Please model this.
Amino acid sequence: MEVKAGTLVILHGACVHLSYENLSPKSRHAYAIHVVEGKDTVWRADNWLQRSEALPFRKMKEVADSLPLFI
Model:
């Protein structure tokens, strides 16, 4: 899928995807957001993405509650 510069694209983690070489002089920013939450959900110890004890994963509600409200 081709999109205009500045477009946000959200992909499911199981979707195979790629980005071609960035030919512009500007940096291409990418953000990876991993969301796994639900009753009795446990992050597997053998998952490739792990956080240290000093910087553990946060619950989505904790993150949402820490954000300012915009009206």
